[in-house]
Design goal:
single chain, 319 residues, alpha+beta, 4-stranded antiparallel sheet, 8 helices, 14 strands
């Protein structure tokens, strides 16, 4: 299957035909390579400049603080080495070659996936996350409703700056202003977007230059992450346990988001922890229960990113 993605997300694309000469990127290194005309969008300084957002490389002293610091280009994501810099003294201590700062924006932080046909958006879906500190998220809500301010502003930006592009775009925005842009979709929740029918529309977009997805039955879904401390030796849940958890009502997928046998420092993770799993579905309490049972499976007293520490409600065995 010529959909280029991490092992744990390939489950969403199994059984959907895709021509062998059509290559669909679901990760940024491949998206950069497949789109030489438009891959400038991975330069976050250029994206900021295109919107008149105050920004510069490290070495240029900001005229005002606080600012937000991050790599100019980061193809592995997960908020690596990003931080708020509060003042000039902290700025001096935080200097990194290849990093940038930008003004600290205000407003809601939203991740949006957009299907783009010849430079024009034809489908949108928006998600918001609950931060858990140190770059981690507790969970995301994948909203059914439109976000008009984002669709208006970013739709015009796409039409102006991505003329001729057909494919998926992922936008990270704060206050409807773009802070990052990726020439791919979020591979975490195609099951929430519409499952097989959505993936078939995805293939049609890249293979035939058309978008055909009715999207009449969309509903709000949830994606819950499990983070543990960085460590080697984590193992995937046993198949019997995975099958039992997936059989619960309102659960649509379980992704073990790491490679067994690969050292912890060989994975891309935020500063606060090591991502072990992503759980998708429509019943948030059930997803929280599953997360805490998987934490126990991994020998953790609780997930590092559990901001509520709600009590368990389901008697789920872990053996």
């Amino acid at each position: 299957m010529p959909i280029h993605d991490s092992d744990w997300s390939l489950q969403f694309f199994e059984g959907v035909p895709c021509p062998e000469d059509v290559h669909i990127a679901a990760s940024d290194p491949e998206a950069w390579a497949f789109n030489p005309r438009h891959n400038w969008v991975y330069d976050k300084l250029a994206v900021a400049a295109s919107q008149g957002i105050r920004a510069a490389p490290h070495g240029v002293v900001p005229s005002a603080f606080p600012v937000f610091s991050k790599p100019i280009t980061n193809l592995y994501g997960m908020g690596a080495e990003s931080r708020v810099i509060a003042d000039a003294a902290a700025y001096d201590r935080s200097y990194r070659p290849g990093h940038m700062w930008m003004e600290l924006l205000a407003g809601e932080h939203v991740s949006s996936d957009v299907a783009v046909l010849d430079g024009q958006p034809v489908w949108w879906r928006h998600a918001t996350g609950v931060p858990a500190g140190s770059g981690m998220f507790d969970y995301w809500t994948i909203h059914a409703e439109p976000f008009a301010a984002i669709e208006d502003y970013c739709g015009r930006w796409i039409g102006h700056h991505l003329a001729g592009y057909s494919g998926m775009v992922n936008l990270e925005t704060i206050g409807a202003r773009i802070i990052e842009l990726h020439l791919r979709f979020t591979d975490q929740w195609p099951d929430i977007y519409g499952g097989r029918a959505w993936v078939e529309a995805l293939v049609g977009l890249y293979a035939a230059g058309r978008w055909s997805f009715a999207d009449r039955d969309r509903r709000t879904g949830y994606s819950v992450a499990l983070f543990g401390p960085p460590a080697d030796g984590y193992r995937h849940p046993r198949p019997a346990l995975t099958a039992e958890l997936l059989a619960l009502p309102g659960v649509t997928s379980l992704q073990a988001t790491f490679h067994e046998g690969l050292a912890a420092d060989g994975h891309s993770n935020p500063p606060g922890g090591f991502r072990l799993a992503v759980l998708n579905g429509y019943d948030l309490p059930t997803l929280f229960d599953i997360r805490r049972r998987l934490a126990a499976f991994h020998g953790l007293a609780r997930p590092l990113n559990d901001t509520a520490a709600a009590p368990l409600t389901l008697p789920l065995p872990i053996a």
